[in-house]
Amino acid sequence: MESGRLFFDPSCQGNMLFLGHGDPLFRGPRSMIAMEDNSRRRPFFSSPDDMFDEEYYDEQLPEKKRRLTAEQVHLLEKSFETENKLEPERKTQLAKKLGLQPRQVAVWFQNRRARWKTKQLERDYDLLKASYDSLRSNYDSVVKENEKLKSEVTSLTEKLVDKEVSMALISDSLPAETLDASAIQLNVKVESTGSAVVDDDGPQLVDSGDSYFPNDNYAGCVVLPDGVQSEEDDGSDDGRSYFQDVFAAASAEEHPHEDGEPWWVW
DNA sequence: TTGTGTTTTATTGCCTCC
DNA sequence: GGAGGCAATAAAACACAA
To answer: Which of the given ranges, A98-102, A172-176, A194-198, has the highest pLDDT on average?
Structure first.
């Protein structure tokens, strides 16, 4: 780039350069002291009055850009903390106080806002990532639990089918009263495994077509074993899973402005 | 000392607001 | 239309490892 940038170095006397927006920037005396020693560096202007001292326009050696002194930066930072926008009056006051051009103060604030914004974005990213990680961890544990419950259902179903087959065989060869007694016995045994597959009311071993699940909580998120059909599986399912709801809820919580959109679409 | 990556200062061009 | 803000960018200044 560097089109139209003019540096006039006074080589210790003063300098002038033209900045954007038509602002001529006059630079004050510069020292030859090494840059690493900030405290000993001289500012662009030794005083506001120097800026308009004619002798600064005399020399025209190429100027290099110099950093603000620690004190200047400190004051600018303090001012930025109180208000990150710069109204004209404050700009003029600050410039006078610091021995800088108002344009320099404005540029400093502009760059400072840009740095602040970058940092803010980083912070937001970290927060979002932490939130995502936590949600992901929750999701993983729920999936694990779901898998565990599914295998439990499969195992219990297999046991149940075995018993039903046995009962069918027995019922062909035994009198009715013996069969009733066996059914009651079987009922008690299954109940003792901790499963809730049998109603408290009494023997209900005959396949009634009812769901194995005590309530609707699992509908839609548990895949039933082959041959076992949920009562809810009647085509009325709207296709939304439990996890979608969870994520939708989490999404709404974190991003109330995101109108119903799931988090993974952002 | 030098090469390289980062930070700071400054410019340019575009946009918005009054 | 001018002033001011912002994004993108250049380039000097600086830090630091090899």
So the answer is: A98-102
Give the list of residues 6+ apart from residue A136 with CB closer than 8 angstroms, or none: none
Confirm if A43 and A67 have CB atoms less than 8 A apart: no
Q: In sequence order, what are the residues at sequence separation of 6 or more whose Cβ sits closer than 8 angstroms to the Cβ of residue A83?
A: A90
Instruction: Of A168, A190, A170, A186, give the one whose Cα is nearest residue A178.
Output: A170
Smallest CA-to-CA distance from A39 within A14, A68, A76, A13 is with A68
**Minimum-distance residue to C14 (CA–C1'):** A36
Q: What distance in Å separates the CA atoms of residue A70 and residue A37, rounded to the nearest whole number?
A: 10
The CA–C1' separation of A123 and B16, in angstroms, is 28
Residue A51, pLDDT above cutoff 90? no
> Is beta strand A6-8 parallel, antiparallel or unpaired with respect to A15-18?
antiparallel
Strand C within 7 Å of which CB atoms in A 100-159? 106, 109-110, 113-114, 117
Q: Which pLDDT value is given to residue A91?
A: 95
- Predicted local distance difference test score (pLDDT) of residue A49: 37
